[in-house]
Design brief:
With 111 residues, the chain is mainly alpha-helical. It has a domain at 9-78. 45% of the residues lie in helices and 5% in strands. A two-stranded antiparallel ribbon has the order 1-2. The longest helix is centred in the last third of the chain and has 32 residues, at 60-91.
């Protein structure tokens, strides 16, 4: 498998990560998959020790890396779909010639 890499000056890494996180909506807190408010709605202490939100297990750097990979995959796929649609027209034959058998052909009207 090939590796695609970029170099970012050390002084700019935080700027790039911050921008990626802001533009793609990184959240430092995410819903806790272990919290279920429907388990016992009558007893509010049932979930008392289980927070509704937890720290995001994905770091900002991991998130930016994932968003970059997603961008490359989605961009490639969008291009290939557009290319296939544009080129599909070239492989489709013209419409068939279908005539109305109840009407005389135009070439016979004045002949």
């Amino acid at each position: 498998m090939a590796t695609f890499s970029v170099e970012i000056p050390d002084d700019d890494v935080d700027r790039v990560i911050t921008a990626m996180c802001a533009n793609y909506r990184y959240s430092a807190q995410v819903s806790n998959p272990e919290y279920n408010p429907d388990l016992d709605p009558e007893d509010p202490s049932f979930n008392a020790d289980i927070p509704t939100m937890i720290d995001n297990p994905e770091t900002p750097h991991q998130f930016a890396n994932r968003m970059t990979r997603d961008y490359l995959m989605n961009n490639t796929h969008a291009y290939e779909v557009r290319w296939a649609k544009e080129n599909a027209v070239n492989s489709v034959p013209p419409p068939p010639a279908i005539e109305d058998a109840t009407q005389p052909q135009a070439s016979n009207l004045y002949g």
